[in-house]
Structure formats: structure tokens, C-alpha cells
Amino acid sequence: MDETVMLGHGSGGSMMKRIIDEVFFDAYGSDELREGNDAAVLPLDQNGGSLAFSTDSFVVTPHFFPGGDIGRLAVCGTVNDVATSGAVPQYLSCGFILEEGFPMDDLRRICTSMAEAAKEAGVKIVTGDTKVVNRGHGDGVFINTSGAGMVPPGVRLGGQFIQPGDKVLVSGTLGDHGITIMSCRESLSFTSPLESDAAPLNHLIADVLAAAPNVRCFRDPTRGGLASTLNELAEQAGVDITVEEADVPVKPAVQGACDMLGYDVLQVANEGKMVCVVAADQAEAALAAMRANPYGRDAALIGDVSAARADRGPKVMLRTALGSTRFLDMLVGEQLPRIC
Amino acid sequence: MDETVMLGHGSGGSMMKRIIDEVFFDAYGSDELREGNDAAVLPLDQNGGSLAFSTDSFVVTPHFFPGGDIGRLAVCGTVNDVATSGAVPQYLSCGFILEEGFPMDDLRRICTSMAEAAKEAGVKIVTGDTKVVNRGHGDGVFINTSGAGMVPPGVRLGGQFIQPGDKVLVSGTLGDHGITIMSCRESLSFTSPLESDAAPLNHLIADVLAAAPNVRCFRDPTRGGLASTLNELAEQAGVDITVEEADVPVKPAVQGACDMLGYDVLQVANEGKMVCVVAADQAEAALAAMRANPYGRDAALIGDVSAARADRGPKVMLRTALGSTRFLDMLVGEQLPRIC
């Protein structure tokens, strides 16, 4: 194990997996934590109901960017994580770590944005905390949100339920958030302006579940992008996943930026997209429900699940436009630090 | 309103109250948030049960100190906040914001400490998140914990239920945590060594509730100390509170350090103490239950509640050992930054 914390330990890729396995699980690895879904699903003592519970901290820089800001991300990110369990997100907590000297007007703007995103998602911010660190020991504003909601009876989603034969959908174009942040930082401009996709997807998830109850799982491809998310799912379920490159929706401007800068768009972060694995016979229904939602217009069926080969572990493969197939690996180090 | 964030906005005193009122409540002040208790108590859709939900971020420096570390604080602080509602704390989330270069061994030590505190409290860490910020933009480690638990049927606690005639208890000596942190920072040493009081108090709270069901509220006097906590409660209930200075338990070494350094011990932070307001006829039962718990051996009855005078707002008063009475004000600015 590395002797110090490195940026890659927060990347969403294999270095992060290592710090989680070797430090956090080693110290306090509960079954729920080890399950590895975005929200823990927890029995509540009295009545047999299940609580979905999730947490996320946000350290994105810059704080404001086209399509959103750190406040919108903080609400949408946790709403989406709770919703992946099939739960109805109801309540959010909000913990600020502010740096001395941060402009109060920027804080107001962030809070207003959080309020708007919460309203759109239909959740309430019900509890909070504020810490201030001395100048030079923070970076303006960090936000933690945690979220809670009840899982409807009979609903149980998670990567562990994926089976060979299932289909893989994605709710829209990939890479928009990561490339927008990167272009803000580098002051790049493109002929078609880019925007972050930050959005609350709980209503989209509810629509898909209503149309296709045999969804196995949802997962939002944030840090580490689609590649890391699919590798997590393949490992969790012990299956292979094959993605058709030509079917993956990517905006031309985003693809152009990736080509120019040497990024693999499948490893770039998204903040308003959902991966959905569903039984084959309900894949079309799920896709239609996604496309009928404003945040899912560009949804696509991008791949399918098969049994893992006996001679190696579960793998994710990409069938390229040229017809060749290559392994699609999890992000290893850090591609774009502090993307969310 | 101030134009930038200042350290005092995180103090637990009146500046923090201002940023909460004028920024956070203004943007997204839900009824639950405005209620002003340490944990929100929330209806869950299906079954009439109530969820207690609370969040806290920890930025204490140094990370390790006599009696505890940032990990123990992070678990105990949130367990205690959830427990103040009368709920049984069950589940914790844990969000780390790590600075690049933080020693992995220190992180392991913190996680081990969190695991021990969680075990003692009987809670599970069920969901987590890890972010890494670049060197110079954090301070080693910040931790957010959020906590959830069910409130038993019929239990409803909160500052709003305090009535004239009630009694005020505190579960032990005051100022231990704040003065320990301060003496670490300043490398002061005392003839009697000081220790932080960081401790999970959920079992103590359960013991008190079993013995004295007419408890009105619990609140832990962390940032801003007893003075700020009592002012919050007085304002929430619209009552006066009078404290007998001679009855407030303070260790001689802590009082000595306060006298030497010019701190008011009643404004110094605690991390393992609980203020309890209880109906007068159950005050002795509550006190006995506290004293029977290992974390409540020095518990004391320190004051009582009366109707607020018509000619001014609710006030907290201190009757000194000399027999005079003075107003005991909320902490205004910042006394000891980053105490938790």
C-alpha cells in the first residue's frame, strides 16, 4: 500500500478501490459497506421497511461552471446515489467546510442553487453543519451531502443481481461534465459550447422502474466514468460486459476535446447520467421510459452481459467501430482531479 | 451581513447563528432545519415511524490528542447528535476529504479509532465516500459523518418542549475537550494531565430516558460550550434559565487553565457531555441514572428554568459563588478555532 495519500486515491478508479479495500474495509468493513452499491439499504428496526442511505463530499474546482456549480452537484450527486437503490430520496443533510475569506455572495449563490436542485428533485434539506477552517487550509468551500429515503416494498436493486443475458443502457451522452470542468480550468473554448450535465435523476429512475420492474441495478458513472462503473458492476456480479463503441452516445464537441487532449471519454466523469442494467425482455421498455424523460432523450442501449470466462476473472470489453475487441479497463490513477 | 466567511462563523456562537439564519435558512430553510435541534426527526412514508438524521463535519487540529483523535470525535459527535432526539443511533456514513500527502498510517489509525468508537456506541458505518484534494488545499484530513436511527414510538424530545419549572442537568465536568486541544496546540503542560472527554453518550441517554421519561431535551454542549447551548435552548423555548455557578462541575486543572488564559469555561467546547432538561419531579431520577453510567459519574443538577420576563427576551443567567447574578451570553466570535 502507498505510504501517503495521493490524488489518485480519490479518482473513482483502481487506486480508490485499493484505499477502500485496504484501509476503510480493513478497519470497519460492515456487510453493507462491502456490498459496494452507491447507497446502503438498511433494515429499520420497527417495521420491516428499508432505508436507503448515501453520502458524498464535493470538492470540485472551479466552484461555478457552465451547467451548474458545486451546490447543484452536491444535491444531485446524493439524490442520484440514493435513487440508484430504487428508493424515493426524501431528506438531505448538508455539511459545509468553508475557508476563512470565502465570499458570502458566492456562498449565497451556492445555497440558492442547492435549493433549486432540491426543489426539482423533490427532496428537503433537513439538517446541517458549518465548519470554518483558517485561510490556506481549505479551498473556499467543500460540501458534504448525505441522503435518505425509503425503498418501496419489493424493490431490491444492486450490482449483485446482474445476470448473463442482461442489457446495459445509458441515459445520455457521456463525458459532458468532465470535459466542461477541464475546459473551464484550461480556459479552452469550443465552437459548440459545453455544459455540465449535473441533474437529479430520481424521477427518471422512477419512470424506468415503473416501465421495467426487472431492472437489476442503476449506477451513476461519475468519477472514473463509464469504464470504471462497468468494471465495478462486472466484478460485483462476476460477469463479462461487452460494450458496442458505436452505440455509446457522445457529443461531437466532447469527443473532439477528448481526441485533442488524449482522454478516453469512457473514463471521463458524468454528473447527470445513469447506467442501467435490465433483463433483456424489458430493455426496450426501459429505454423508451428513459427517452421520454427530459434527462434521458439521448439514452441508448450500449451493451450486454455474458458469463465470465472460466480462465480469467470478470472483464469489460469494448467492441470498436472497426470490429476489434479490447479490454476496457478501470481508470488507474487520476485523470481530472477534483471533478466533483 | 459580513462580506466574507470568518472563523467565527464556525464557532457555535452568535456569528454562526447569523450565517445559518441569513444564508442557509434564507435559501433552503425547511421546517425541520429551522426547528434547530441537533438531529432532524422525520416521518417515513410507509409506516408512521420517525427517522432521526444528523450530520457533522470534523476539522479539528491536531488530529491526535490525549483522550482521542479526529476519528473518535467524528463517530461520537454524530452518535450523540442523533441520540439527543431520543433515537437509537444505528447507521453512520463517513465522508473523507483527504489532502494529497497525508500519511497512510495516520489514516489507518484514525479509521481504527472510528471502528472502536462505533463498536462502543453499537452503530455501523454503512456507506462512505473519499475525496482527495491537492496539496495545500486541505489540512490532512477532514471527516463528515451523518447518522440515522429510529425514534421509539411516543418519544419526542426537543428544546421547544422546555417549560418553566424544569431542571437543568449536565452529565459531567465542563471544558475538558477544549482545554485539552488548546494545551496541545500551545504545548502547555499541567501538573494533572488533561484529556478530551470525547465519548459516545447514546447509552447514557437511553439510561436517563428509561429512568425519567419526562425529559424535555438533550443537547451536547460542543462548540460555544454550555453558555451557547443554554442560550439556544432558552431562545427555542422562550424561557429564562438560571445556572448556579458553584454547582457546575469543572476539573481544577481545567479551571486553572481557563483562569490563566482568560477563557470562560462555560464557553469552552465539550465532546462527551450532555445537557439534559427534565421535569422537576424526575430530576433526581435522571441525575441518578446519569451518575450510574460510566460517562456520567460527575453529573450535576446545575440550574432551573423560569418564565421569561415580559420586558425582555429569554435570557440565561449565572448566579455566581458570591451571590450576584449576571447574564451568561452566547459566545460571539471565535474562541478556539477548529476545536472539533
TrEMBL record, chains A, B:
One Pfam family here = AIRS_C
InterPro entries documented for this protein: HypE, PurM-like_C_dom, PurM-like_C_sf, PurM-like_N, PurM-like_N_sf
Residues forming the PurM-like N-terminal domain are: 36-151
All copies of the PurM-like C-terminal domain together span 163-309
Name the Gene Ontology biological process terms. protein maturation
Q: Which residues form a coiled coil?
A: none
User: Record's family?
Assistant: Belongs to the HypE family.
NCBIfam families registered for this protein in UniProt: hypE
State the name under which the record lists this protein: Hydrogenase expression/formation protein HypE
This chain is encoded by the gene named: hypE
